[in-house]
Design goal:
This protein starts with a helix and ends with a helix. It contains two helices and no strands. It is mainly α and 64 residues long. The longest helix has 29 residues.
């Protein structure tokens, strides 16, 4: 394996953990939705974060 392969695997792991954290936050909101007021900019920011993570992961395949 070359250096790019190692770096792409490391970046994939980091992005996967980031997506997991955002989805766990959504899960926490769903469980506490009767006690928590939803704030639209925060939800938009979290959704945009997932889109950016997936897009950067997908763009790695173009770099090969």
């Amino acid at each position: 394996m070359d250096a790019f392969s190692y770096l792409s695997v490391l970046l994939s792991i980091i992005l996967g953990l980031a997506i997991t954290q955002v989805l766990q936050g959504f899960r926490g909101l769903m469980h506490a939705r009767s006690h928590v007021r939803l704030y639209a900019p925060t939800l938009i920011w979290a959704g945009l974060s997932i889109v950016v993570d997936v897009q950067s992961w997908w763009s790695e395949f173009g770099l090969r």
